[in-house]
Amino acid sequence: MKTKIAIASDDVGFARKEEIKKYLIEEKNMEIVYDPVTCKEQGVNNFARLADEMAGIIQRDECRLGIYICGTGIGFTCQINKHWGIRAVAVTNPYSAKRARLSNNAQVIGLGCRVNDLEYSKMIVDVWLDNPFDFTTARENSKKNLLEAERNDNALLVKPADVRWNMGFRPDDEKSEG
Known about the structure:
InterPro entries: RpiB_LacA_LacB (IPR003500), RpiB_LacA_LacB_sf (IPR036569), SPI_LacAB/RpiB (IPR051812)
Largest sheet: 5 strands, parallel
GO molecular function: intramolecular oxidoreductase activity, interconverting aldoses and ketoses
CATH topology: Ribose 5-phosphate Isomerase B, Chain: A
CATH class: Alpha Beta
Number of domains: 1
Strand content: 5-15%
Helix content: 25-40%
CATH superfamily: Sugar-phosphate isomerase, RpiB/LacA/LacB
Radius of gyration: 15 Å
Protein name: RpiB/LacA/LacB family sugar-phosphate isomerase
Pfam family, one: LacAB_rpiB
Family: Belongs to the LacAB/RpiB family.
Distance between the termini: 8 Å
Strand order of the largest sheet: 2-1-3-5-4
Shape: globular
């Protein structure tokens, strides 16, 4: 079964998004379930709406991963992190991508086309995809911190009624990625 992923961009990141999308489909055998920006003009000043939509798609378990591409990846990740259970990181190098997923179970990464070239961006995506969060290998302190963060998020943010899964923090989430 193909892993499902959401992808979006602003006008600045549109060309890179198209290249990364092609890479995900052709080289990584992934299924794109959300790609609302089909031309550069659709990405102008829409990052907040796109972040809100992508968060909902992940919360409803239509997919569990997302990539957003703009100049830096920062603004989008700030917006999407406002949503219950969502963990997004703007990553600029493979090590940060690895730690974002392995240590923090980040479902979404923001990539900056003004920060890295295409091949380096592909490397970042590969490392992020190839290092899933694993409770059996995560440091005990990290697991406790993540579970506490989930409890705090629940106290600070209202869990939407249409959230279909536990967002990956509890080891009892049996459903596989995708």
